[in-house]
Design brief:
With 246 residues, the protein is an alpha+beta fold. It contains six helices and 14 strands. Strands 8, 9, 10, 11, 12, 13 and 14 form a seven-stranded antiparallel beta sheet that branches. Strands 1-2-3-7-6 form a five-stranded antiparallel beta sheet. A two-stranded antiparallel sheet has the order 4-5. Strand 12 and strand 13 form a beta hairpin. Helix 1 runs parallel beside helix 6. It is globular. The model has no long low-confidence stretch (mean pLDDT 95). Bound molecules: guanosine-5'-monophosphate. The site of guanosine-5'-monophosphate has 15 residues, from strand 9, helix 2, strand 12 and strand 14.
């Protein structure tokens, strides 16, 4: 059956789902950085992200975070709930790295005084500019209630994932989340976690050596990208025999 694409992203394609209210999220092998300026194809990367994201979304569901994830369909695809994506990228930081280091002159690796949540406009053409709460509510990107829900979910996800990764000797340095709107059984609109959680949108450092196990290996030309993603999957105990997954 030929699937109808709904949205083509840099690392994923969203297709029409098999039933109303669903989409299929397909994980590609493409890697991009610097807002699409740097690109590469890394065979097998999409499979790793599909597995890792499935595992983390299921774990978050277990602790009561509503997510778009329904089930993994095969090695590269998962069935998700159809949401209206909120055009905000929510970044949570625990340790100084990436754009925070560049923008504020902090030292990479320094523990932040507390977890910091930042918002960016999801707009590649504008280079995802940073937003304040005021921009978000004034320009109706999200209502004050939605923003409250987003903030509390983002902090809860951070606490939970920090502990989950700590247990497998990995420091959760920072990560990016996206949220979507959905109508629940009572016809009420609510916000749920969407997109993916994987080494493409998290910074994950080995706790003992501080080795980077995420997309920074691509951004900084460190090599061993797929091996690092596989290492994360291995420590999460989800690296099955890939032949069984088709
Ligand atoms: P930074 O602002 O330091 O570049 O990124 C902070 C965190 O959010 C990093 O873990 C990074 O991977 C993630 N992140 C920020 N923007 C994006 C984006 O547009 N796409 C992806 N995949 N991750 C992002």
């Amino acid at each position: 059956m030929k699937l109808r694409p709904i949205y083509e992203g840099k690392a994923k394609t969203i297709y029409e789902g098999p039933e109303a209210g669903t989409f299929i999220q397909h994980f590609k092998d493409s890697l991009t950085a610097q807002n699409g300026v740097k690109t590469a194809n890394l065979p097998g990367k999409g499979i790793m992200n599909n597995l890792i994201s499935e595992h983390l979304m299921l774990a978050l569901h277990e602790i009561g975070i509503p997510t778009h994830f329904i089930r993994r369909m095969n090695a590269r695809e998962q069935l998700i709930r159809q949401v209206e994506i909120i055009k905000i990228e929510v970044v949570v930081r625990n340790i100084a790295a990436g754009s925070l280091v560049k923008r504020l002159g902090k030292t990479e690796g320094d523990r932040l005084p507390r977890s910091i949540v930042e918002y960016y406009l999801k707009d590649d053409k504008l280079g995802d500019p940073m937003l304040s709460d005021e921009h978000i509510t004034a320009f109706n990107l999200a209502s004050p209630q939605e923003l409250d829900d987003i903030l509390s979910m983002a902090l809860r996800v951070n606490d939970f994932l920090t502990g989950l990764f700590w247990a497998i000797n990995i420091r959760l340095v920072d990560f990016k989340l996206e949220f979507g709107r959905i109508f629940d059984e009572n016809g009420e609109m609510r916000v749920i976690l969407a997109d993916e959680i994987s080494p493409d949108n998290c910074r994950l450092w080995d706790k003992s050596s501080n080795a980077k196990l995420d997309k920074d290996r691509f951004r900084e030309d460190l090599g061993d990208i797929l091996e690092s993603y596989q290492e994360v999957a291995k420590r999460l105990n989800i690296l099955y025999d890939l032949n069984q997954m088709a």
